[in-house]
Protein 1
Amino acid sequence: MKNSRILLFLAAMFFFNLLGFSQEVDITKGELSFLKGETSINIEFTYEKTRVGDFSKEEDYIKSKKNEMNIKEPGSGDTWATKWEEDKLQRFPPKFILGFTNISGMTTAKDAKYTLIFNTKMIEPGYQVGVSKRNAGIDGTIMIVETDDRSKILAKLVVEHPEENMWRGAAFDAGSRIADAYYLSGQKVAKFIKKNMKSS
């Protein structure tokens, strides 16, 4: 009886977690038919006015986390802060691109006719402590522009809560959790574009 109650509780927690992190991709401007027949696209990433966890400003999160770690182990916070910036350039974008290209069938090229600009609005780092876990997730906005004339914005999209894969195993490293969320985000965006460029 006790085991049944525990299983019921875990099932309920799983259900509400899915509700809290349901993935949404939507278009807020333009349409996507112009991408029909395109075999490549340029993808770029920005981090403008990014929120992290409970912090409304990314710089406040970095400062707090760095100070906390340096108190526990001098220098560790500075190392972490450097790694955080490196992940934003070298770890997260490739994961998004991998997820996107796997689903879309498109390749990426700097000289492609169109450029997709993904701006990260929010990062939830999540946590993994023993059996307790909170999934990482991101929110973002997308602009698709003409590569040769960035003033020509052809479409705008919003991306909300593409969480990490709950079943891929323990991820004690925040960078790994966040990178997974970017990968799933790339997949979701590609699926949305494929579906909507056909119906546009």
Protein 2
Amino acid sequence: MELTKSEMEIMDVLWNDGGALSRADFLERSAEKSWKDSSVHILLNGLLAKGAICEAGFVRHNKTYGRTFLPTMTREEYFAATVFCHRHKPDMLGLMKALLNRPEVTAELLTAMEAQIREKKENL
């Protein structure tokens, strides 16, 4: 699944908020957006069709009810999935080496990653 720029803006709002949001919530929380307010329902329906979000329930706004939405995956899960959905898939070991060479990698992060690797090995 690959998302458009506008769809990513919607997903960022969901990921940053952490709760179920309605159409009105998206309009309130999307200060820097590349889409028009009238397009939010099209974007939400597209994300539903792609499986990036799901309906979480309904909420009342004034005299009407509207659907609320939740992401079906975390930001990290989305980016991990997009790396391998392209025709030109990277080598897993080469990708990990490139990520480890990033300046953002600290000793604390390496320790946390080692714990994740140990856990994965135990569960194989």
Protein 3
Amino acid sequence: MENAGVTLICGGLCCGKTTYARRLSERTGAVTLSADEVMLSVFGQDAGERHDEYAAGVKNYLLGLAVQLARAGVGVILDWGFWAAEERRRTREFFGARGIICELHYIDIDGETWHRRIAERNAAVAAGTAEAYFVDEGLTAKFLRRFEAPQDGEVDVFVR
């Protein structure tokens, strides 16, 4: 059986990555693997000071699972932001070394929409109607420090 491809969903907090991944999955039949879903399922809202360490382990596990699925002919969507250019480069190399096609879809939204979506998500999380991270000032600051928007040459599909 021929390898299926892997789609990396890149974008900031509350930009619509999970909604986009869900729609893409419905349209293509690909399986979505979400680091946030695993983290929230295991640790809830707070994995403490080891959050980044645990998240790295979850992502490594999901990369291996993505390889298995792609080799079985199942398309895969990785929904976890890919904030850093180095992470995007390493992930493309990881799949490329295994003969698996990899695309980067970048979701970009304007600042006003971003702030509105954060408020909407936080309200839904507080009301218990959404299983997502509450975006406080600390998480917002972390995102702003770490996010490196992809350059044109990195992006296969722009979503605006």
